[in-house]
Amino acid sequence: MIQNPLYILTVLCGLIFVSEWLTKNTFLKHISGSLLVIILGAILANFGFIPSASNASPVYDSIFTYVAPASIFYLLLGVNLKELRKAGLPMLITFVLGSVGTTLGVLLASQVIDYQAVFGENYQAIAGMMTGTYTGGSANFNAVALHYDVVREGAVYTGIVVADNIVTAIWMLVTLSLPALMMKLRPHKELKMKNGGEMNQYAEREHVGPLRLGLMLFIGLAAMMVSDLLAEQTAIPSVLILTTIALILAQIKAVQDIPGAKMLGMFAVYLFLVVVGAFCEVTALVEVGEHAVSILLFTVTIVLVHGAFLLSMALMLKFDWSMVAIASQANIGGASTALALAKSFKRNDLLLPAILAGSLGTGLGTYLGFLIAGLV
């Protein structure tokens, strides 16, 4: 029964619904939906309600092959590079400096632990994954993980995700208190950004009819087919070609006007992550548990180096501390946490720049992740 494809898809979709409901209506709202959906998938797989890694279903292969790349494509369609000028030059400079700090952090963290022993043959991929996710978010993390097939290493993948969630939550608290603490060290007048009130055009459009949904699916599937064909002819990873196609299409107004990309992207991400959870067998998790401290130390080192580098540059360049905190969150947590931080600071002038900096990270992170994976 558990190998029946229709049964598997029914349970996976049900888990997505349950995880979303729990994170919106219960005390579990304090953890991310992406982590919860992995946990639920792992629980059901280990209790035998859905296939696990040892008896994986062809449905899982299809999700890794088609659904996961589609999630990256649709999320990248929200990156409008023409709008980046509205973020303002100081915000963009701060964000780029944060990305440099992340890259330095990954290279240094690789020396702090015996990363080849901890991560095995996945060490190269994980260096790229962490660079990508701490440049702009999980879409970059998944893009690198897919190319190197780390997604099938359920225990390792989940161990990194858990460490990432812990450190990201702590860093949110750090950046919340950062402006007040740094103002005591170097007081300054707040720099008010222009174009602070143009938020309405970025609101998610809910109405997605069959015509628009069909067109959006056609665009995504065609882009995936073209990227696979080009990858066969070149040495370039298919997901990197897909990222480039998505960024090009995202600049076309006719594509921007089609609703539904974010909805499709988020659902595809959750479907992919449920399967990642199913690959987390208890026996494998025990093996990773031996290296849990090293994985956490690796992750903490990356973020601490990122923070130290960004703060030192901000001191030198005399940047606005609220802007520095928000740019750092755009790196570490993505656009959503950066936006939440701007709201917490009551800096309406930084709401739009926070979103745009996060969008830049989504576009930049995959390229930077593959670069570091290659260098390592």
UniProtKB/TrEMBL annotation:
<feature type="transmembrane region" description="Helical">
    <location>
        <begin position="59"/>
        <end position="77"/>
    </location>
</feature>
<dbReference type="InterPro" id="IPR008537">
    <property type="entry name" value="DUF819"/>
</dbReference>
<keyword id="KW-0472">Membrane</keyword>
<feature type="transmembrane region" description="Helical">
    <location>
        <begin position="267"/>
        <end position="286"/>
    </location>
</feature>
<dbReference type="Pfam" id="PF05684">
    <property type="entry name" value="DUF819"/>
</dbReference>
<feature type="transmembrane region" description="Helical">
    <location>
        <begin position="6"/>
        <end position="23"/>
    </location>
</feature>
<protein>
    <recommendedName>
        <fullName>DUF819 domain-containing protein</fullName>
    </recommendedName>
</protein>
<feature type="transmembrane region" description="Helical">
    <location>
        <begin position="89"/>
        <end position="113"/>
    </location>
</feature>
<feature type="transmembrane region" description="Helical">
    <location>
        <begin position="236"/>
        <end position="255"/>
    </location>
</feature>
<keyword id="KW-0812">Transmembrane</keyword>
<feature type="transmembrane region" description="Helical">
    <location>
        <begin position="350"/>
        <end position="373"/>
    </location>
</feature>
<feature type="transmembrane region" description="Helical">
    <location>
        <begin position="35"/>
        <end position="53"/>
    </location>
</feature>
<feature type="transmembrane region" description="Helical">
    <location>
        <begin position="292"/>
        <end position="317"/>
    </location>
</feature>
<feature type="transmembrane region" description="Helical">
    <location>
        <begin position="211"/>
        <end position="230"/>
    </location>
</feature>
<keyword id="KW-1133">Transmembrane helix</keyword>
